[in-house]
Amino acid sequence: MIRKVLKSICLLALILFSTANTTFAQDAKAGKALFRSKCASCHAMDKKMTGPALQGVVERWEAIGEFNGKSGNEWLKSWILNWKDPVAAGLPYAIKMKDFDASEMSIFAGQIDDAAMANLMEYLKNPSAASSGPSPVAAAASEIAADSEGTSTYTIGIFIALIVLLLLVYILGRTSSQIQKMKVSKEEDGTYKLKVEKTSKKPFYLRNSFKSALMLLVVVLLVYAVAKNAIGLGRQQGYQPEQPIKFSHELHAGKNKIDCQYCHTTAAEGKHSNIPSLSTCMNCHKAVQSGPKYGKTEIAKIYNYLGYDPATDTYDKSKEKPIEWIRIHNLPDHVYFNHAQHVTAGKVECQTCHGPIETMEEVYQYAPLSMGWCVNCHRNHDVQFVDNSYYKTFEKFHQEMKDGKRKRVTVSDIGGTECQKCHY
Fold first, then answer.
1. Using an 8 Å Cβ cutoff, are 264 and 274 in contact?
2. How far apart are the C-alpha atoms of 324 and 243, rounded to whole Å?
């Protein structure tokens, strides 16, 4: 009996694992969530941003045909994971695309597994398929992609382990019950006889094996719930408070193409990125006194905070008061983050952390800003050594790249995952 149950456990685990992997395959809804998490800061389907419009991108790469034994579709997947690989292989289309924009594409090798890549390719091939109502599997995949942690495999593993553990508890409970029913008695002739009591007719929910399994399940679920909620403490991805002035980054950074550092002047030079002073706003709005969406209403608020009268072009300093902007992006006090280190030394685009800010009518926190999210970026993001004097002291890496012994240097290679870099 025990052998049969063990075989059933193995079969069930195999089925669950296979089903879990195949259900994530080619899910356009999950692919869209992954696209928003990894790609949307630089790409849109229907318009050019930092990168090209991606409508029809699968067809364009498939039209390349076979090169070095790989199809255009395979080369596209290689480009998504690490664009430098097809360039190094000499693929003409890849060499052409690498010069599309001065900004380098992020490296996603190690962040996107085969199942997630299948989802992404399905979405790129057929974006409209992602507009249908989400299935439970798609909803789960969306949540996983939004966290940018790649935890689906671990969740599946934990689920399978839980099922196996519960079945083992059931087997042990049945075995224990059978042993307790066995009694050895001495007969009158001096021989010993094994007697087995009749099986109890108790309902299954009153049996010890069921109670034990139920208790174990409750404990495991409680531990999982506590751990998951504890990990999420302090995170506020998607946080979008209403600000005292309806400032549109879509209008200023998107339509009007105002550089981020024109307003956030200290991002390239200091630890913190400053809130723009009202004098910066007045560089434009002393002349531009009406907006395309709200007319004079929102711009008038700037004047009120400054005590400025546009009719007389005068300031009343007694009426000045600060704007109480609501902070959106917060890190724990024990975390050190330096904007200048990323913007100036690392040449990291604002959109890497803040998302497609140039498309936001009202700003929200795009990324989870979790430890795992930061560490994964440091593991996969290439340090831009070329024409960057900040890294000239790393002579060994420069020489290895010159000699062809090394193709890339990641942030992790220069100590970016050491505890003391962010916690000290």
1. yes
2. 8
What global pTM score does this model have?
A: 0.56
Summarize pLDDT for 254-311 with one digit per residue, the tens.
Answer: 999 999 999 999 999 999 999 999 999 999 999 999 999 999 999 999 999 999 999 9
Among residues 155, 153, 170, 156, the alpha carbon closest in space to that of 9 is found at: 170
Q: Residues 197, 181: contact at Cβ < 8 Å?
A: yes
Helix and strand numbers (H, E) in the chain are 19, 4
Return d(Cα 219, Cα 216) in angstroms, integer: 5
* Beta-bridge partner residues of 185: 193
The model's pLDDT over 352-408, given as tens digits with 9 standing for 90+, comes to 999 999 999 999 999 999 998 999 999 988 888 877 888 888 999 999 988 989 888
Asked whether 212 and 291 are in contact (CB, 8 A), the reply is no
Contact 274, 286 (CB under 8 A): no
What domains can be seen in the chain, in order of their start residue? 2-153 (1.10.760.10), 370-424 (no CATH)
